[in-house]
Amino acid sequence: MMIEALIAVALVGAFVTFVAPNRIAGKLAFAISLIPATLSLWMFAAFDGSGNALLDGELAFASEFEWIQFGEYSISWLVGLDGISMPLVVLTTILSSLAIVSSWTPIDERESQFYGLVLFIEANLIGVFAALDFFVWFIFWEAVLIPMYLLIGIWGGPRRKYAAIKFFIYTNVASLVMFGAFIALVFGLGDVTTFALPDVTTAMLNGGPDGFLGIGGTTLASLVFVAMFLGFAVKVPIVPFHTWLPDAHVEAPTPASVLLAGVLLKMGTYALLRFNFTMFPTEVIEPFVIPIAAIAVISVIYGAMLALAQTDLKRIVAYSSVSSMGYVILGLIAYTQFGVGGATFQMVSHGLISGLMFMAVGVIYNATHTRMVTDMSGMADRMPVAVGILVAGAFGYMGLPLMSGFFGEFTIFFGAFGAEGLAYSQVFTALAMFGIVIVAGYLLFALQRTVFGPYHLETDYDVDRAPLHDIAPMFVLLGLIILLGVAPELIFEMITDAVDPILETGGEL
Amino acid sequence: MALLELPAWTALAPALLLALTAMALFIIDSIAPDSRNSGLLAGTTAAGSIVSLGVAVWYLLAGVGTPTVDGGRGVIDVLGNQFVVDQLALFFMVIVAVVTALVAVASYDYMEDHTYQAEYYSLVLLAATGMSFMAAANSLVTIFIALELASLPSYALVSILKDNRGSVEAGLKYFLIGALSSAIFVYGISLVYGATGHLQLENIAAVIEAGEVASDGGHEIADVGGLLGLGILMLIGGFAFKTASVPFHFWAPEAYEGAPAPISAFLSSASKAAGFVIAFRVFTEAFPVAETASAIGVDWALAFIILAIVTMTLGNFAAATQNNVKRMLAYSSIGHAGYALIGLAGISAGGGELVMGAAMMHLFVYGFMNTGAFLFVALAEYWGVGRTFEDYNGLGRRAPVACFALAIFMFSLAGIPPLGGFWSKYFLFTGALEAGLLVVAAALVINSALSLYYYSRLVKAVWIEEPAVERETLSQPVGLYAAIVVAAVMTLALLPLFGPVADTAVDAATAMLA
To answer: How confident is the model at residue B2 (pLDDT cuts 50, 70, 90)?
Structure first.
């Protein structure tokens, strides 16, 4: 019942905060969010699962109830954690708490509604990672959209209405495609009468679908694979479905960006891992290996090039997310222990690092009211601590050893280089590694112009040191990034434990 | 079971209690005719409908209508089978009672300054009584009487704002179209009677199955197939009026727009549901698909397939072009009638109980989300903010709780997951697939996707847009707020608690189709 408790605390907290007076809403929401954060850390320590949740693994904190019976199909409440979802749940609760603290300065109207929505998103994100029945998962998955749409639409920047509706339409259409595909798959499986992901996985790996609506079994499996890949690709996002991301990020208020980059993008990669790369046997994946690897590499390079061309700090960080997600896809398609494990590790690591970067940019924006690289220089002079953290975060992005980004990217490259199922794996890996060079290029270039040199600011504001509650969450994130960089086995062990069964049952690509 | 030992007529208690409460209001009104004590009147109305709701739920839980061990259907017959109380009847009695209670509570504030308060509440209750009887009516005569009992007070209610031109005009239009469709309906009844010699639903079915009328010299049903077919078509016309479906839908936008908003809520939720229950009962009991088709030459399910697709498409496209919020909701209500019609379209196929059950679930959820949406309009009228989307801009700043509830209603109507509306639409979709109605299922998905446009437009207006005019703090009328919050909580709560609703609906449909 621990997972239910986590979700319930966040949900009830959301409603309480929603009706609380604006004055205390921020503090109240933070206090409430500490409960799931502490609870999830305790769960992390007490984690006793093993194996993969979809492949007969031993689930931690699992619970199951009959929910709805309709005809022969039954829908159950089924939640549980394995080595892949546990770190992501902890990432969600911690980032939510920190995002709430980082909103104290920038959010100055309709606070109770803002913090209520943030807690509501947190509850649903936990649900997305913990749910193991398709319907439970899908409900949480969709429930994230509406509050995020409102966060961007109400508290966002000048073009917020456009950005909010673009985000909503892109991700909703993608969800519809994916939903339809999965339902067709379950109906096509014939003798499966539940929507529980483990049951569907077992049936898929033991024969696959018989066909549906006149479409043959093998064709159906391939079609569903493609449709679900496209559905999740929008969420990740992968080039060419990435255009909603910079708009949403730039217009979103800082805390929403933190959650968006830190956790929401991971929903897409997590779902790709859970559905596309766990559920489908290797015969189905095989024809798509080269195209997916190519898309991954294009995302890496093209995302980084786009970042290089930006002059808005937030846009730079946003595009670099596209690039980083490309690494994750490359790791997944490599289909080796280091590839898939590294990709999962990179999800957590990128969540921390991008969260940190968005917070740092947000702090600078709070003081200067501009994010344009050309508008400022020498910020280190006035905001030494905030800028120091920004630089540290940038190094994390570039993959500096002893920070988590290094371990994530290194394992992905290591896993991808030797991937036997991936033809030309060395070429793909080498091209992707070139992305790192570009990352270093645009980050250092932007930093050189903004934080170093003589102090100068185009906008007319007094820049002072940032308050403690702006700085503290960034220190926590930096600490976690270094901790995972020094001791990656903290989570990498449980990740590989959950990843290995996928590779064993799926067979060689 | 103890319940079955009560006198049989007590099975109609949910409907009788509503009638009794209406009588109680007459007494209160005759004692204090000039009283403006709306608390007493609204309270009595709400209490009466809540008791009716409680009794209906109690009967359902006690197992009325559940097949018994000895093979009986567990159905209670009243007045020589003129009324039957089974799960189908009780399910819809619950919907009617819920909507009546919500409307009564909301009217407490909305009608505060109006005259004719006692008349208003008693008319609401009498209409509700008629709808409740419609749920149980089992012969074409009682169906017609119950339908008129529901309709006549509705005409008066739509035009109760006597000094308001829109309200009177809406009432007149509603009355004229209602009278016309009643005439068509009753003529259809006479044709069916002429062809089969019976008014009782199961007797009609028996004659059609036997293929001949034995008495009065007797004749083959196939010889009067055209007569019977025309009769059935006219009956469909009567249902279409009551459920606001094509081709008798065009009264709905005017009537809903002109009527006091709580009455719009009442008509679009309860009255629509009542229209559907008679359609379900008549077409499952009286006209067995295969035999009727061979007698009249056409499968009547085909008519409903066409009506479903046309109704949902027309409703949605018209709703998308509206600027007036109430009219948008009126057209959306037509669209939802189209979704529920899928239940009738799919009955004939294998697995028909699933799609009919799904339609019942949809009407149940709709009873909360649509009532709530119209009550929000009532609240906006109470505040006097105007009628268009632009007038609603920025309300979220002043009234976050009510606007949060509105967002719940809108996303639920659109069928977005974390809300009750998602389940019923999903089940309609899979039910239609199981019944082999691919085109209908596709139309449902496309229309749902389209509907998101205009539903989210309202959410965007209240939450994201800047207010056009500066507003003072908006008042918080207790009754309207309570009704809206309850409807919102139920719309949310139906997500986890959908299991019992789904079971009851599918059981009821299975019993009807057995």
So the answer is: very low
Cα–Cα distances in angstroms (integers) from residue B286 to residues B66, B202, B292, in the given order: 21, 6, 9
- Asked if A19 lies within 8 A of B401 by C-beta distance, the reply is yes
Q: pTM for the whole thing?
A: 0.91
Residues of B in contact with A146 (CB under 8 A): 407, 411, 416, 418
Q: A184: which 2 tokens?
A: 């067709």
Q: What kind and span of H or E run contains B411?
A: helix B400-414
Q: Which structural domain range is residue A379 located in?
A: 287-509
- B430, B452, B502 ranked by CB distance to A69: nearest: B502
Most distant CA atoms of chain A, gap in Å: 72
Contact A161 B464 (CB under 8 A): yes
How far B285 CA lies from chain A's nearest CA (Å)?
Answer: 22
Query: Which of A451, A412, A437, A454 has its CA nearest to residue A308?
Result: A437
pLDDT tens digits, one per residue of B459-483 = 999 998 888 777 777 888 999 999 9
| Residue found by looking up tokens 């066409």 in the block | B306
B445 min Cα distance to partner chain A (Å)? 9
pLDDT at B1: 46
Does any domain span residue A422? yes
The alpha carbon of residue B345 is apart from the nearest alpha carbon of chain A, in Å, by 18
The percentage of chain B sitting over the pLDDT mark of 70, rounded to a whole number, equals 96
Three-state DSSP at B145 gives: helix
- Has residue A72 got a pLDDT over 50? yes
Q: Do B407 and A146 touch (CB under 8 A)?
A: yes
Of A141, A143, A154, the CB nearest to B463: A154
User: B60-89 b/e with 16+ CB inside 10 Å = b?
Assistant: beeebbbbeeeeeebbbebeeebbbbbbbb
Cβ(B276)–Cβ(B340) below 8 Å = yes
Q: Does A70 contact B427 at a Cβ distance shorter than 8 Å? A: yes
Structurally, how many domains does chain A consist of? Answer: 1
Domain boundaries, given as residue ranges, for chain B = 300-514
